[in-house]
């Protein structure tokens, strides 16, 4: 390979974004490329012939001089500078900046000469600092979330449970448990209190669940279960709501459907959410159908309604937490589908929604069959 011509070398040095600076044995600057001019702010003609210390913070000049002298005496010919401590440069305007540099030594007739390649790492350091700040902020946010989680789960639940228990006790005392007569208006109030406290409890539970799902702290207690039983339980608890809306809920799951390795309580929560939505967003006197289909790999359970449907532009958001369509009455908190999705995914399954405005919505859950059934 031919050696590079002086002209080509000169061009490469001029092009370099890094500062390339040469100094002689007296630490006087003998060469200063364009990169050095851009970084330090000096034109070559004003800095060549000047001492190197002009480019170094005052406090470091002494140590720096000693280091170069020591390097000059040693046998190593090239070295990264500032390996043990950070180094800094000083611009013409007095501004100090963090730098990375390497130094090389060449022998000449007048003694060793040195060339320094130096990079301004201000932007890099700033980005590192910013990353560290963001990391610290994210960690603080996670800690705050866990604190809120603790607060909500214990300190808020206990008083809500107390209200529930006492409201229920007032209602029971009317059932002849004790010889007290409770005025009807008090019974009415107690019933409303109980309902409100139950709603509050359900909301707390939902908030805890989304938080747990997001932090990966939801623990499943999986066992072999008959999905039909789980769906049936969900439909049973929702029957008052279905009756109120005059909705016929049909379960169309036959015996073929194998048992699945699932957490029955969590899957009950999923089906309650989906069937609850189907009832809530349906027109009176329409039907909600829960059907299943089986392949060798998986079981799919679909909850289908003939309700209002969801416009295509809103469909991508339905699984987002707190999301609710502006069109529907906002009776819930918008957490049901987010939780359902989280639970299904925690089971290694899939959830998908399909909807057409005016025609209805179907939500399909696919759960993998366990090894025992495969
Ligand atoms: N079966 C459905 N038919 C029409 N819209 C639905 C249906 N299920 C969900 N949605 C829309 O998605 C939103 C989010 O549902 P969800 O997460 O269960 O929250 P919530 O039921 O508390 O509103 C609902 O507010 C509604 O706008
Ligand atoms: Mg819901």
Our count of domains comes out at: 3
Q: Tell me the β content.
A: 15-25%
Class of the largest domain in CATH? Alpha Beta
Question: What is the CATH superfamily classification of the largest domain?
Answer: Histidine kinase-like ATPase, C-terminal domain
Please give the alpha-carbon distance between the first and last residues.
66 Å
How does the major sheet shape up? 6 strands, antiparallel
The average pLDDT score comes to 89
Bound compounds = adenosine-5'-diphosphate, magnesium ion
Q: Tell the overall outline.
A: elongated
Class derived from helix and strand content: alpha+beta
Helix and strand run: HEEHHHEEEEHHEHEEHEEHEE
Number of helices: 9
Using the 3D structure, state the CATH architecture of the largest domain: 2-Layer Sandwich
Describe the structure.
There is one protein chain. With 374 residues, the protein is α+β, with helices and mostly antiparallel strands. The chain has three domains: 6-120, Beta-Lactamase (2-Layer Sandwich), CATH 3.30.450; 126-214; 223-368, 2-Layer Sandwich (Heat Shock Protein 90). Helices cover 45% and strands 22% of the residues. It contains nine helices and 13 strands. Strands 1, 2, 3, 4, 5 and 6 form a six-stranded antiparallel sheet that branches. The protein has a five-stranded mixed sheet with strand order 8-10-11-13-12, with helices on one face. Strand 12 and strand 13 (360-368) form a beta hairpin. Helix 5 (122-177) packs antiparallel against helix 6 (184-214) and helix 6 (184-214) crosses helix 9 (336-346). The longest helix is centred in the middle third of the chain and has 56 residues, at 122-177. The radius of gyration is 37 Å and the shape is elongated. Residues 273, 277-278, 281, 305, 307-308, 310, 318, 323-325, 328, 332-338, 361 line the site of adenosine-5'-diphosphate.
């Amino acid at each position: 390979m031919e050696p590079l011509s002086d002209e080509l070398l000169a061009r490469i040095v001029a092009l370099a974004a890094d500062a390339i600076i040469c100094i002689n044995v007296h630490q006087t600057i003998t060469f200063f490329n364009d990169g050095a001019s851009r970084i330090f702010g000096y034109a070559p003609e004003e800095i060549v012939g000047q001492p190197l210390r002009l480019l170094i913070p005052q406090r470091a000049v002494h140590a720096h001089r000693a280091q170069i002298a020591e390097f000059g005496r040693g046998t190593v010919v090239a070295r990264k500078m500032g390996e043990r401590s950070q180094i800094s440069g000083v611009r013409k305007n007095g501004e100090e900046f963090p730098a990375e540099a390497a130094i090389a030594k060449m022998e000449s007739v007048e003694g060793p000469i040195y060339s320094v390649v130096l990079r301004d790492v201000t932007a890099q350091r700033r980005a590192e600092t910013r990353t560290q700040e963001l990391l610290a902020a994210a960690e603080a946010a996670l800690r705050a979330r866990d604190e809120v989680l603790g607060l909500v789960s214990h300190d808020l639940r206990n008083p809500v449970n107390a209200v529930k228990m006492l409201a229920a006790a007032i209602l029971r005392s009317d059932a002849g448990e004790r010889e007290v007569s409770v005025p009807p208006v008090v019974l009415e109030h107690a019933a409303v209190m109980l309902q409100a406290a139950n709603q509050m409890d359900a909301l707390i539970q939902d908030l805890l669940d989304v938080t747990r799902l997001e932090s990966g702290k939801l623990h499943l207690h999986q066992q072999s279960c008959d999905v039909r039983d789980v769906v049936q339980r969900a439909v049973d608890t929702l029957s008052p709501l279905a009756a109120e809306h005059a909705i016929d809920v049909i379960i169309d799951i036959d015996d073929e459907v194998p048992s699945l390795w699932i957490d029955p309580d969590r899957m009950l929560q999923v089906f309650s959410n989906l069937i609850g939505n189907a009832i809530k967003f349906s027109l009176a006197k329409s039907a909600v159908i829960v059907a299943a289909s089986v392949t060798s790999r998986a079981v799919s359970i679909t909850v289908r309604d003939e309700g209002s449907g969801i416009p295509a532009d809103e469909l991508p958001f339905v699984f987002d937490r707190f999301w609710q369509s502006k069109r529907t009455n906002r009776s819930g908190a918008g957490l049901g589908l987010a939780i359902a999705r989280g639970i299904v995914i925690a089971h290694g399954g899939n959830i998908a929604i399909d909807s057409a405005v005016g025609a209805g919505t179907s939500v399909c859950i696919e759960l993998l069959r366990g090894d025992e059934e495969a």
